[in-house]
Design goal:
Endonuclease Iii, domain 2, Endonuclease III, domain 1, 12 helices, 58% helix
Length: 211
């Protein structure tokens, strides 16, 4: 089976298993998604969602973040790990958003990557979830693990995976596909153990068919 054909089958299976492909991070405002993803690095989405209500209550606007003392921000985001670096990125990103982008989250990859602490994973998530840009591919740990197991890619390099998935995924489904991989990676195809016996993707999964 060719990779593109395999990908289409897997997309359909995941759509059936997870009809609502929603980002698990909570963000009433566009820039809050940007910040939440930054906080989620080396941290769980659950922990971030428990931390951000206090953060956004203390700093309710970009202006408040831009004027904030980094140590005050760091103290709130401490549970997310690497808190000093993350706090500095949030404050500096706020300043840049106000200074260079009129307080608006950029709608293109090049400008998003200029923001402190923002890499391609975060940028693709913003482009897909906020701006609904076709072909947005979010390569996180779940995507890397599952796409290798399923036989869609044979590399752990995030940039190469992004490139390969763009070739085989329908552009209008790629962002939701990545959200569904997260859900599937937590519920079924976990890092510690695969639950192939309950996986509806199994007939099209290279890992399962090679057992």
């Amino acid at each position: 089976m060719q990779k593109k054909e395999r990908a289409l089958h897997i997309v359909a299976c995941l759509e059936e298993a997870y009809p609502e492909a929603l980002c698990s991070l909570q963000y009433p405002k566009d820039y809050e998604l940007l910040f939440a993803v930054r906080l989620a690095a080396q941290c769980t989405d659950e922990r971030v969602n428990k931390t951000t209500p206090e953060l956004y209550s203390r700093f309710p606007s970009l202006e408040a973040f831009a004027e904030a003392n980094i140590e005050d921000v760091a103290e709130i985001v401490r549970p997310c790990g690497f808190y000093r670096t993350k706090a500095k990125d949030l404050v500096m990103a706020s300043q840049m958003l106000l200074r260079d982008f009129g307080g608006r989250v950029p709608d293109n990859m090049d400008d998003l990557l200029k923001l402190p602490g923002i890499g391609r994973k975060t940028a693709n998530l913003v482009l897909g979830d906020i701006y609904h840009v076709p072909g947005s591919v979010v390569v996180d740990t779940h995507c890397i693990r599952l796409c290798n197991r399923m036989g869609l890619v044979s590399t752990k390099d995030p940039v190469k995976i992004e490139t390969e998935l763009r070739k085989i995924l329908p552009p209008d489904k790629s962002n939701d596909f990545c959200h569904r991989l997260v859900l599937h990676g937590r519920a079924v195809c976990t890092a510690r153990k695969t639950k192939c016996e309950i996986c509806n993707v199994a007939p099209y999964c290279k890992y399962f068919t090679s057992l």
